[in-house]
User: Fold this.
Amino acid sequence: MAKLADALDLGSSAARHVGSTPIIRTYLTSFRSIGRIFFTFPPKAEQKNNKMATVERVNTGLLNDKLTVKLNKEDYLPSFEKKLKEYSKTANIPGFRKGMVPAGMIKKMYGAGLFQDEVLRTIEKELYTYLDKEKPEIFAQPLPLENELQKLDMNSPGDFDFSFEIGLKPAFTLSDVAKASFTRNTVEVTDAMVTEEINRMQLKAGKMQEKETIDNEEDVINVLLTESDENSIGVEGGIVKDISVPVKLFNPKMQKQLMGKKPGDSFVFQLVSAFEGENLNTILKDLGLENNDTAPAKKYFQQEIKTIGIVEKREMNEEFFNEVYPGKDIKTEEDLRTALKEEIQKYWDAQSRNQLHDQLYHNLLEQTKMEFPKEFLTRWLKTGGDKQRTQEEAEAEYPTFENQLKWTLISDTIIKENKLDVSEEELRSSLKEEVSRYFGNMNMGEDMSWLESYIDRMMKDEKQIDATYRRLVTEKLFGWAEAQAKPTEKTVTSEELIAMQHNHQH
Assistant:
């Protein structure tokens, strides 16, 4: 479900992503006075109809075009001369009264910078006007090609050509999800799974009795975990955390190594070598790492045993039932088992749905065929992205970048064609659910009038709203895809479903 949120946004219209100063500033910084001019595209109302400038477009490769803005001096010279006059009226120069500075001095002091600014401002305006009129479907922003800025001389105004290249979005046909093969892998919750969960809850709520040596898989060890390498050398800025771990959570090989250990003993282990399946996910979560991910699981930790204990299980009574499910009026163990079975089933149904969504994601991404202007996008990644990259870095990152870009195009198309929008009411409702989950079982009183004002404040947080919108629209996208699919139903074990999730990481 995170695919859409993680995809790169290279724009959906020329007007949106080309109408900003960085297009030309990309290559101007070294040629102009830093910080003197802030480029903006002129409003449409100020654009003149009698322009002599032209824009030529030539194809240079697969989905790659060259735009050349051709200026006549009449396109920029009047505005340059107007700027000189404005400066002469407002400039404060020692030895001269305001508005009385000779025009020649103004031109000598400020003319070169103003001249360059007006030429480049005119180029921006012409480029913007062309893209707004023609509306080519482009990626990101036009990339400036090498232009001879040093030839801009206010004493020799003339005609100038400035060239840019654009990358065009490909035309494509979405994979037909309705005709593809999918499997809905479902887990049926067993009595044994419910019993295991009850035992876990009894242990969690039980009393700890300390002991000197690990001799039983039911023992619980309190350990200090320090992220390190395989040779016990600590990782600078790494994770350091105290946690309690039941011995039985370790895999059989590690359990055997733990037997006989005492407080103060320490050793190095790799997470993926010490834990398996859902137990590995539990430890990753306790450490604040992403579960269902192979990279964090490969981390090494120095484990120092602080204390060893055996937990006396919590008695099964109404007090315990009420702590587990406050307000549900659970009186018997049978009632508890019924409630737990429903809750566990909901969890595995959600995991099953996520795994089906993963299949849908791969089908859409791999079976939707499209081509990209690779050379242009590599150059954009190198010079026009979020940071400057070397050629080698850009080429190394390109495959992942292209996949993200491809998913953005696919998801944008699905959202647009099926009108999968998110309303303000849906945003507010989702935020309310989030707040309710945060407060959990806390008694918030009868007066809930504060909640609306709290949601109002959250609605003003752009980062919060953007994240919530992306999550909701992604849910709608996969909901649409799921409705198109005709999956085969298959019952699997929880371990088998977890293995499927581990084998399909992105």
